[in-house]
């Protein structure tokens, strides 16, 4: 794949090249998705909506992610740049859309850092309670000053590791990702053994109908599955933001993105089948429809499934959230680095640590913003914090959709005579991008209802909608301020609009 000379040239930003290979990229991608953390909160609510069609919904969610990933791979092959959505959107559509696409990525990643840190705090004290046998230790997570202080410590540690560059990140992630995957597979095998020996409360045999998305009872339930896909698969694009630091910058990140999604969908299906077979979908006891256990499925099922080693699941969820907290720093730091490099943000954001060859200033800024946000929201209201995280789903759909359509527009002159090129740079990203942007609009409409999210409202309008629109509106304001101070980027002086001029 090739492109016009100005787009094909990778802009040097001072990042350390060749730091991560294919395996390391996939490990970091899996880490950012955080399967143990994601599954413990997603399995119950999803099963309560779609019943035993949980595997089908996981497959449905996999499709748009894969289609968008193909678009990311094509763009990365032509323009490997740490700015990803920001840079590619600016190349394809111009600086204004590119800037807002980058803002969507920053909003989603920086703010979700606070949620990951909060989850790590909860499971840290739960783990201490399980290890020591002192249940009162688990209650410390509800103590606001203790919670905030612990969260800030976790955030500082994750920032420190990220500041030290991808070498330190890679080693840290190998350990935590390997541990959580081993525990999740252990849990699945143990659940199937319980089903086989007749000791499982559900004791269901795997059925082909579970994989049929047409069996879902209603369109609203089906839409809930698409909604879920944003959260359970989000994070794989982190491997693209490392492209300038990856071995084989034009090919490895794209392959790693597709491989990451493939690994995750296999893991999700395995756990879904194990949990369904073991528990069933009843509304009582250990059934997945029981509202009392839906918030944290693994906390409820680990004991009955894994017996005396159930504490390993708490450690695995803690490891999952801690690993994702650290690896999630990669995307916002490198996006801000690129925005500073091209003049869309102050030049200091383009600072790279000479010792570690990492975006030091941007990494610290990400940690400070996320820490302040968490501390303030934790004091104001837990519901505001959870509703903000829910609203970020709109940001994810927005920037994924912008990136996918940027692929279609950038390669619009490269499809002639090539079915493969048309499929990979037009059809796949077009369908994936449209699906996610439709969901973005649908979520915005649905979230105006106060019942969406925690039920909080302002003037009869749902808080999730106000927060989501507020984040976008703030992005527009910041963009206009940057235009007034740094008009060069917005006038195309630092990054030009272009298109692929050769066949793919």
From TrEMBL:
It is a multi-pass membrane protein. Signal peptide: none annotated. The keyword tRNA-binding does not apply. One of its GO terms (molecular function) is transmembrane transporter activity. The keyword Transmembrane applies. The chain crosses the membrane at residues 20-44, 56-75, 96-128, 140-163, 175-196, 216-236, 256-277, 297-319, 358-377, 389-410, 422-441, 461-481. It is found in: Cell membrane. One of its GO terms (cellular component) is plasma membrane. It comes from the Bacteria. InterPro entries: AA/rel_permease1, APC_superfamily. Keywords: Cell membrane, Membrane, Transmembrane, Transmembrane helix. It holds the Pfam family AA_permease_2. This is Amino acid/polyamine/organocation transporter (APC superfamily). It comes from Kineococcus rhizosphaerae.
